Amino acid sequence: MSFRDRPIRQKLMAILLLTSGGVLVLTCAAFLAYEVVTFRQTTLKNLSTLGQVIAANTTASLAFRNEGDAREILSALRAEPHIVAAGLYDKDGRLFARYPSDLPVAALPASPDRDGYRFEHADLVGFAPVAQAGSARLGTLYIRSDLTAVYGTLRLAGAIAALVMGASLLVAYLLSATLQGTISRPILALAQIAKGVSERQDYSVRASKVASDELGVLTDALNQMLSRIEGQDRALRRVIAELERSNKELEQFAYVASHDLQEPLRMVSSYTQLLERRYGDKLDDKGRKFINFAVDGAVRMQRLINDLLEFSRVGTRGKPLQPVDVTRVLGAVRANLTMAMADADALVTHEDLPTVVGDETQLVQLFQNLIGNAIKFRGTERPHVHVSAQATAAEWVFAVRDNGIGIAPEYFERIFVIFQRLHARDQYPGTGIGLAVCRRIVDRHGGRIWVESVPGGGSTFYFALPKQNGEQAL
Amino acid sequence: MKAVFLFNFAQFVDWPAGAFPDSTAPLVIGVLGDDPFGPYLDETVRGETVRGRPLAVRRYQQIDEVRTCHILFISASEESRLGNILDSLKHRAILTVGDSPAFAQRGGMIRFVSERNKIRMRINVAAVEAAQLTISSKLLRAAEIVSRGEP
Predict the structure, then answer these.
(1) If you measure CA to CA, which chain B residue comes closest to A54?
(2) Which residues contact A223 (CB under 8 A, 6 or more apart)?
(3) Partner B contacted by A75 (CB < 8 A)
(4) What is the Cα–Cα distance from A23 to A29, expressed in whole angstroms?
(5) A93, A227, B21, B138: most buried, per Cβ within 10 A?
């Protein structure tokens, strides 16, 4: 898990610890650097002071060659334990006295080097001139200081720094572990609430406000949002329930109305036919023509009612969706359309067709309406209808292509609206319900339907059905 | 070696202001009687300065010849006349140095003593103070201090 995906608690802790740790490291580094520099300087200064004092005291010893006196003076160096060696050289560079007195001569330089103090390996060494004020030089003092004390002190300083750093980091950790809660806890609470809302769609919960800072503002905003959503959700549910109820009523009404209309219509139709059969010879031509008009109107009304019933049944008499072999569907369609196909000498071809999730009866009706339309709106050539299917990531896209009269682009949408007819009744018979039924069926399957066409160049009706299907509420 | 010591005394002894005619006058090291140093004394002081003053070496046969002088080595050849010599130098700011026995006890200021091939010094502090000379404590450290009457 990358840092950006870690919980806010850990991020806050990491930020706090990194910040304090960085500051501590810098501070300790500065402290140690200061210690090193000052300690070296101090050591150098101390040694040079000591060297000057000893050199000044040994002038007479050198001048009058009193070794015992020189040794005595040098032995005062015992007071500084880190002075490990000292030597006094005469004017000619010969060793005159040494400290400690039992030091091997080889441990001291054979002859004095140039004056001054310098760091040599782990030691600080110095050569100081021995001279009486305002007079010629009498000799040289060599002095060597062991820096283990210095490094020991530095190690101690380092250990203290490490200890302080460790303790500070621990304190920082404990503090941040406690203090980060003031920021992370309200955020976590908010996140919990938001998660609960999105998981359970329960808009009645409210976040409790801890403080009036930005998080408090966020909490208030969330609560306001929640109450607004809750209100809207309630209103929406009410509207949906209302819509569902009225839709159902309407469907019921349409169904009942269409169904009940058939009875009187059948009566009109039968008695008109009886009238014609029994009293046809007693009527003149005009009378028989009127009866024909009446019969024709009754038949058309019958068809209209049938289509309306069909349309309303898509919603009310639908079967559950299940796997359907489209090739079989097409076989049923072919059987239903035998007459129309024979009349028009129509050719219906298809490619390999898949199995989809759907309502078989409705899919039969869908293909039947589309292919029937393709035959009905044929041009001068022999009608040829071709059915194909193509898979996309989530859908099956079916195409029903014909070589009929085609549709002008401005009608591409209108044709799917109920009772919309593009042609006069005497030109092409029909109620204007067929494509509306198609759209309703595709809608119920959660798909889309559209058309591509060039007037005079044939039409292709496409509809897409989702591969994973859940029934859509109509 | 004694010649070098004579020169070194110049560094560790302060003379009163009146001992020098002016601020650049040389510091005079005198030898009374037979000179035991040969060329060494001249060689030792050649080119040296002490507190800005050049050094000069004079040799005297008679005590009357001693005029401006700051360090006077009284040779062993003068031992018989030592009492007179020291008397006549009394209260003059001259550091008297010698190597005859009991030199310090008789009123001389610094006596060289040879001990196991090393040269030690005995200093008569009372005589030094009487002559208004100041000896550096460091020189006193390196020497043995005696007073008149002690052996």
Answers:
(1) B138
(2) A206, A207, A209
(3) no
(4) 10
(5) B138
The answer to whether A67 touches A96, Cβ cutoff 8 Å, is yes
Condensed to tens digits (0 to 9), the pLDDT of residues B32-68 reads: 988 888 888 888 888 888 888 889 999 998 888 888 8
What CATH architecture applies to the domain B2-146? 3-Layer(aba) Sandwich (3.40)
Per-residue model confidence as pLDDT tens digits over A377-414: 888 889 999 999 999 988 999 999 999 898 889 888 88
Instruction: Out of A1-5, A107-111, A182-186, give the one with best mean pLDDT.
Output: A107-111
- For chain B, the structural domain boundaries read 2-146
What integer pLDDT is reported at residue A327 of this predicted model? Answer: 93
Q: Which amino acid is at A400?
A: V
Residue A37 neighbours by CB under 8 Å, 6+ apart: none
Test the B interface: residue of A58, A59, A61, A64 with most B CBs within 10 Å: A64
The beta-carbon neighbor of A132 closest among B12, B141, B143 is B12
Which pLDDT value is given to residue A161?
Answer: 86
- List, edge to edge, every strand of the sheet that includes B118-124: B49-50, B53-60, B27-32, B71-74, B95-98, B110-115, B118-124, B144-146
| pTM for the predicted model, two decimal places | 0.52
Asked if residue A76 lies in contact with residue A152, where contact means CB atoms within 8 angstroms, the answer is no
Phi, then psi, of A209 in degrees rounded to 5: -85, 130
Residues of B in contact with A76 (CB under 8 A): none
Classify residue A465 by its DSSP letter.
Answer: E
The rounded percent of chain A whose pLDDT value lies above 70 is: 98
A64 vs B contacts (CB less than 8 Å): 5, 8, 119, 121, 139, 142-143
SS (H, E, C) A282-346: HCCHHHHHHHHHHHHHHHHHHHHHHHHHHHHHHHHCCCCCEEEEHHHHHHHHHHHCHHHHHHHCC
Cβ–Cβ below 8 Å for B8 and A57: no
CB contact under 8 Å between A60 and B141, yes or no, is yes
Tell me the nearest-neighbour CA distance from A57 into chain B, angstroms. 7
CA closest to A63 among chain B residues: B8
H or E element at residue A450: strand A448-453
State which residue of chain B sits closest to A68, comparing Cα positions. B142
Chain A and chain B share a number of CB contacts under 8 A equal to: 49
Q: For each of the domains in chain A, give its residue range(s) and CATH number, in order of start.
A: 4-176 (3.30.450.20), 318-466 (3.30.565.10)
What does each C-alpha distance from A239 to A228, A232, A249, A341 come to in angstroms?
Answer: 16, 10, 15, 47
Shortest CA distance from A55: residue in chain B: B138
The answer to whether A388 contacts chain B (CB < 8 Å) is: no
